Structure formats: structure tokens, C-alpha cells
Amino acid sequence: MNMRAEPPVGQKVRVATASLAGCFGCHMSVLDMDERILDLVERVDFDRTPLTDIKTLGPCDLGLIEGGVANAENVEVLREFRRQCKVLVAVGACAVTGGIPAMRNSVPLAEVLDEAFVHGMGLVNPGIPDDPELPLLLSQVHPIHEVVRVDYFLPGCPPSADAIWSLLTAVLEGGALHLTWAQLRYD
Amino acid sequence: MSNDQQRSTFTLDGRRIPFTPGQTIMDAALAAGVYIPHLCHKPGYAPHGSCRVCVVRADGRELSACTAPAAADMSVESEVADIRALRVAVLQMLFAEGNHVCPACEASGNCTLQAVAYHCGMLTPRFPQRFPRRAVDASHPDVILDHNRCILCELCVRASRDHDGKRVFAVSGRGITSKLIVDAPSGRLGDTDFSAEDAAAHVCPVGAILPRDEAFRVPIGQRRFDLAPVSRVGDVALDPDAEVLAADAESEVLA
Amino acid sequence: MSGASGLAAEHGGAHADPARIERVLRGSLAALGRGPDTVLQHLIAQQQVFSHVPDAAIGRLVEELGVTRAQILAAVDFYAFLHLTPRGRFDILVSDNITDRMLGNAALMTQLCDALGVRAGEPRADGRVSLDYTSCTGMCDQGPAALVNGLALTRLDAARIREIAALVEADTPLAHWPKRFFAVSNNVHRSGLLLGDLETREAGLAALFARGGPAVLAEVERAGLRGRGGAGFTTALKWRFCREAPSENGHADKVIVCNADEGEPGTFKDRVLLSAYADLVFEGMTLAAGVVGAKTGFLYLRGEYRYLLDHLEAVLARRRAQGLLGTGIGAGEGPGGGFDFDIHIHLGAGAYICGEESALIESLEGKRGITRKRPPFPVTEGYLDRPTVVNNVETFLGAARIAEHGGYWFRSEGTDRSAGSKILSVSGDCARPGIYEVPFGTPVADVLADCGAEDTQSVQVSGAAGVTLTPDEFHRLLAFEDLPTAGSFMVFDHSRDLLDMVRNFAGFFAHESCGFCTPCRVGGRLVLDLVDKVAAGAAGRHDLDELRDIAQVMRRASHCGLGHTAANHVLNTLDKFPHIYRDRLRMSDYTPSFDLDAALAEARALAHRDDAEAHLAADA
Fold first, then answer.
1. Are strands A179-180 and A60-66 parallel, antiparallel or unpaired?
2. Which residues of C touch B173 (CB under 8 A)?
3. Is C74's Cβ below 8 Å from some Cβ in B?
4. What is this structure's pTM?
5. What whole-number distance in Å separates Cα of residue C311 and Cα of residue C479?
6. In this predicted complex, what is the ipTM?
7. One CATH from 3.40.50.720, 3.40.50.700, 3.40.640.10, 2.40.50.1000 for A13-105+137-173
8. Confidence tier at B244 by pLDDT (50, 70, 90)
9. What was the pLDDT predicted at C215?
């Protein structure tokens, strides 16, 4: 699992990020690393990421995925990241375990949609949407490693900026991820 | 000759651990202030040996420290790479088996499963999540029983039977369909003679049996295992060595 | 005798009105008493009459036995043959060992389901019939096999299935079904030291009476007899430990248990021994009682063999009448005579784990069959914490003959470390499946030649928990020092796909895990899912690595022998028959853990969509 994301000398590391079924909290935590973000920007270029609003994905050294896999579009995005990124990281509880979105797995999908679109309170024009533009929901939400190979896992809800920094250090240097006791949290 | 000199010892990862005849490897280690990860074991309760997290290698044989009697001059390996990997796999099985959603769990920070997984450096549940559909029993006025988080350690079964004299709980079924049940015709905790004062109400190592109204009295981040690693506060006796151990824990680095 | 041990005259699906429940309960209470340890036998009695354990019966048992409702529910839920809701009045369970599958049990199940208009696992709406699969019923030499209301059916074929369907539709009581349906052959094809001599002389007991316990123990020791259940613990040592174990009331409360819970897939020798050699088995148990000083004996008979119950009870009754059981056995016949001992038959109820001695003891005590931690061992703290000897059926038989002929006689066959003979249960692809008694140290190839096996691809020695052999290994010896075995010997020729065997065993162990420890409970299920994934052509190389790793975790970290051995077949076949996996792998090394497109099916149906965007390709 000691994948190495480091590019040839003199080039910056190309990084892409995405939030699947997540809350963007992990992305917020990346921004939480204070002045270290200046170091980071020195060393990385961003490809597709909500942080830059770039929407297309090219070949990257590192992909960071937040969120679980809840629908067909999540699967497509995740597969695209896996194809384009040398190193792929599951960031945060939802990507690592399914997390909060996966709590819907305790309820059959028909009941979920019924509550949301048919019999829930305050609905106008009730009915389950059938627009082909909308991604279909998977019957259950899954962690991302159940769909594609994942090189690193960084748990936490969200992982602390410190933990993210440790992750980036490990990935950029191609080593194993070492989290201190204080950095390893699932909540 | 003093008592100390008469006491037999074994080695645990190279440290000499004294023991008295009849003590298990776990008993002796915890009494000496040395932590061995465990979930279904609790000092004062009959050894059980079901979770298998306390697997160690004693003179070449892999066995559960909580049930294996200590023997003189035995060489026990615990915090070595392959045993740690074995423990992580067992923990991953537990996480994949139930619904352990730490960010949404009242017990987070007080949960021994979580704390042991931190100690062992588990980063992913790895196996396909089973996402079982299990009930939450909110029938009792003072205690919630959430089957999603039960790890079948039977501490509540033992506490109710051996400490409370009640036999409120039992494990039913077999294999992956095993489940905790309660002793009432309705199958609901509220219809048993269970009480929030029972030992069984406070022994659950996860968030399956939770006293009501205590949820966030202590905020996340300030709870038992948020403040200190399980290796320091998880049933380990405080002895003169504890200071050293505590210092170790501060700098504990996880693989 | 009625209730738990007598074969109830009324069977299956009697209407569970309170008066009738009470009548059955009174019967079993009279027969078995009110000890908490009798609970399982009372439950079996209810199940047999009502095709389930009625709720009212549970309430009454709580009152009568002082156990909790939760304990009873836990037991009913644990044992495969006990149910809380009614099965059909004809409850048919099709044996599902790999050998049954090789003989076409699936097609017969489909035929029976179609003929009766019923689905496996769900009783028919009119309550007449229910069908399901069950673990190996021990009829591998005359399968495909099944149980109907607990009684063994053998040699099923399409014609017999048609007849059975007609009998069920006509509501014909089992007593009026053709006797040939229930015929069980012994199929002994090779006899040796033990099976060559059927005669009951009680000469072993005579030796005990005349020479005394220590002398008999010395003969058993001299013989080098080791346990025939597979683990091979030295029998004399076990008996000595129990004899020397302190007990509160002197020797009187020690216990002898005969383990006839022959559940290892592919083994059926105990069925034959109990059919044709029951006297010798009971003689061996009585010898053990005389040696260790036990008063109480149990034969733990697997539920699948309840058709033997009447026969065995009759043998016990005769032995009591002969003074070979009861009080003052052999009084006045020498220093070893004059002791009290009797044997009770305790039925199992569908749980492979109960073949493990401490789980068996838990079951004898009326509980779920969960393996105990050790130490303490049963010889010091067994049944109700009394010193207890648990031996295999074949071990007791051997002990009886050793007492008669002496230890040197037994040692005349076998090897230094594996004295005597081994009784094998041979099944699968061979001309003459059945029982073969061979000297320990016999090569696998000799057995294959003997049973008429040709073009053999693999032999599974010692059951699903045993070892998978390649033809390169057929020179290996059946002996504790090379291939230890409890006797199961399943043959697979080159027409077979060994992944079918792996799937069958993985399903078996996932079903039979008691659920106590994490690695076996969860790991067993993970192994099954991965093997199914391979079979579905959906696995990548990563899955094989996971399979191997999980198997190792089970082997290293499980609580008992079941978990330690449950994934042997996976590790063996990954090493020795890697093509059965490799040939089915996808190109991609890493594949999803679930079928992505199938996971959209529910949403497609709810949204009434079937456009291209409503599907996901299997490969990225």
C-alpha cells in the first residue's frame, strides 16, 4: 500500500478531490490547516475539485474522495477518479465506512423514496422522479473501497487538519500512513 | 525468602510479569499495569474468550490471553506486527458485522471497541459492510437497547446473571444470525425486571446498552478515551510503572 | 417410554391446543424429570408432536424447570431442528452434503417443490408440508438422502420423489409409507480387527470383573488406543485423568459420554456401529464406567439418527435385564464387579458443533452447543462440572475388544503411533461406497483401489474440516502422524468441479458456526460470500488474497476446532487446485464487493426507468 504520488522533480503534485455522498466537511477540514495550506499550494496543483470549481478530471497524482457511494453518478465519478489518479484516498468516515448516509441502509429504498417523494409532509406534485438526468440511488450506500481499489484510508468525521497533513506527507513521500493517537479518530 | 521472590513470572513482549497460580495471562498483565487489547473481558467477570481481540502468541501457540492460564517462564508475544495484524482483522470483522456509525453514536469516545481499534491502528473496516437491519428497543424508561451496535461479548449476560442475579439477557441463534435477546414474553427490555441500577446497565463496551439522558452530558472530545488511550485507562492497574506507561501513551504512534 | 426419547406415536403438526401441549409435557416430565439440563429433550418432544415448540409449552417449561424464557428461546433458535412456528405436518429435509449434490439432490428438491407446490423454507399454506435443506444426514453411501419428520429416507430418485409427493398429498401417515423408503444398509465392504467379529460375548466386561479396573486400563494403555473422533487423544490417559480426578461425592458422580453426534460431512460409520454393534459400544461405555468409577452414562445421538432410537433403547433395556446395566453390575464376579452404571440416550437437534466434546456437554445440559474454554477439561469438569469422559462410538467399541483380547492384539495392526485399525466412511465417486475398516498406516491409494474409484481428481480426508488431497498425495498414509482422520473419505473424479465442493463446505461452516467467537462467526460468512463471488465470475485477484487472509485469521484466532479447521478446504484448494479459482477471475484485479447494476434494480423499478443511464457496467 506504499503508493507514491510524487511527480518527477520540479513538477507539482496534481491533486483532485470530490465529495460523493458526503457533507463537504472533509473538504472544510483541508482548509482548516491554517498556514500550512501555503506550503501545500507550493507543492500541489489542483485538478478537478470543488475548491477550485474545476469540473473535468485529467491524469492526477492524487485523488481524495470524501463521501460514500450512494448513487450511479457516485459510482461513475469514483471510477473516473480511480482511472485518472495514481493514488486514491478515502477521506473521512463516509468514504471509509459509508458513514451517516449509510444509515439509510436500515430502511428499504422503497420506503426512503416514499417518505421523500410520495407521502412525506409538504410535498407538491408527489411522485418518485423518473427524469433520466437524475442519478438512480443504489439500494444501499457503500464505502468507496467496496467499488474501487483504495490506496489509503483516513478516518474521521472529519479527519483533523493535522491528520490530513500526515496523510499528505505520507502520500507525497510514498510511505505508510502513521497517525498519532490524537490524530486517529472515527468521530 | 519474601513473597516477591517466590512468585513465578512469565515474559510479555520481553517484560517480566509476575503471576500467582490460577491467574490468566490477561489477569497478570493487567495487574502488572501492562495492557493487552480486549473487548469481552472485564476484571471481576468470568473469562469468556469470545471476541478474540486478546489473541497472543504464548510459546508459539496463538490463544486468547483472557482464558489462557499463565505459566512460569512462558514467553508471550502481544504487540508484535503479525499479532497486531491479526487483531486488526478481528476488529474489522466486528466493524463490518454490525452498524458502527461512530459520528452518530452517543457512545463515541466512551466506546471500548472504538478505543481498541484506535490502539490497534485500524484505519478501515476493510471487509464488505453487512449493514444488518436491526432493531432499537426503546421500551425501557431508563435505558436504550440498540442492537445495531451489539458485538455479542455477553458482558451484559454475565453481569445480569452473576452480579445482578436476574438473567435478563441471553444470546440466541447461531452463526452470523446470533443475537442478543431479553427475557420477556414481548421480547422488549421494558417488560423485564431490568433496572438502570443494574451492573448490566453499565457494562456494555459499545453503545448497545445506553442509559438515557446522559447522551451528551460530556461533550465529544472530552470523554474517557478522548482523554487517554485505552492502553492507559482500559482496566489496567495503576502501579508504579503506570507513570512510564502514561508517558509512552502520549507519544503512542500507530501504524 | 414417551416424550423425548420414545419415538412419539403422534408426529408432525398435531394441533397445538393447550390440553395436548400439557399432555405431551406431562409425558416428557414423567420420562425426563425437571432438571434444568433436561430442557432440550423436552423441547425436542414438543417439536416432534407439534412440528414446532408452541409458545404455551415454553411458558410451562419456564414454570416447571426454573429456566428463563430467554434461555429456551436461545436454544430453540440455535438448534436447526427446533422451530418457533409450525413446519409442515410432513417436514422434509433434504440432505445437502457435497455427495448428495453430486448425486443430484438439487434436481430432486426442485421436483418435489414443483410436485407439492411449495418453496424450500416456507411451509405450504395448508400446513401439510414443508421442505428445506439440511446438513449431511450421514447417508452418503446411499444418497441422495432426506429426513421426513426426523426419520431417514435413502436412495432418493425421481420415481421415489413422485411416490413421496403422492403420499404427502394423500396425507398418508409415515407408518404406512413403504418400508423400503426407510431402509438403511450397512454397506460394510471391508472388515478388520473390529468389524470382523460381530458376536456379543461381554468378554471385555468379564475381564473387567475378573481383573479389575486398573488391569483393564493397563490393557487399553498397552493397546495405544487413541480417540477415533479425529483428535487422537490417548484414551487410557483420558480415562486415567478422569479416574484420578477428585470429585465431591467420591467416584459416584463421574460421567461417561459416548459421542454419537456424527456430524462431519461424509462420515457415517457410527450409524453402522450403532445399528449392528450397539452391544459392543455399550459394553465399552460400561468398561469405562468400571475403570473410572462413573455411575451415569449418556449416548449423545445426533438427531439425524433418531430412527435408531427404538433399537438402541431396546438394547439398553435388554442389557438392564441381563444385569449389564443398573445396580451391582458384575457383583460377585471378581474384584472389578459390583458397580452401578446406566446409560441414557440424549438426542441432538441439528448442530454440527455438538460433536465437539465440550459443546456436546453444554447440549447435554440443555443449553446451546457452545464450546467451553479450556482448561478446565471435561475429564475434571465436564457434565454439570463432574469429571467426564467423552469418547467416540468407535473408541468404545475398540476398548471393549481390547479388554477382551488384550492390548497386544490391538497393536498387531497399525503403526507405532497409530495402533489398530480405522473404520472409514467412503463416499463420492467410487463403485462401492460404504464402510472400510483398514489398518492404520494404509495408503490412500489402497482405499481408492478397494472401493473402485477411477480417474480420481481429489480425495477429501476427514470431512469438510479435513484435508484436500491431489493425486500426488495418494501415497500418503491414513494415520495420526500423516493424515489423521475421523473416517470421512470423499472421492471426487475428474468430472467434478472442486469449486462446487468448496461452495458446499463454505455454506456448511457458515451455517454450523455456533456464533460464539468473532473469526468463525463473521469470517465464515465472509468466506462464503467470497467463494460465491468467485463462482459467479465476479471476483478479482484481490478477492483471492482476501480469502486466504480471512481463512488464516479463522485458523489462528478462532475459539475452537470448528473455526480452526473451517477454512482448511479453502487454503488447501487455493494451494493445490488454484485453477478452480483462477479460471473464473475477471481481468480486473479489484472488483466491487457487490453487483453494481443489480444494486440499481430497485431504484429502476421505483422510477420506472430502464434507460442507459439507469445501468452500470460491471467493469469500470
1. unpaired
2. 74, 77-78, 515
3. yes
4. 0.95
5. 33
6. 0.95
7. 3.40.50.700
8. very low
9. 97
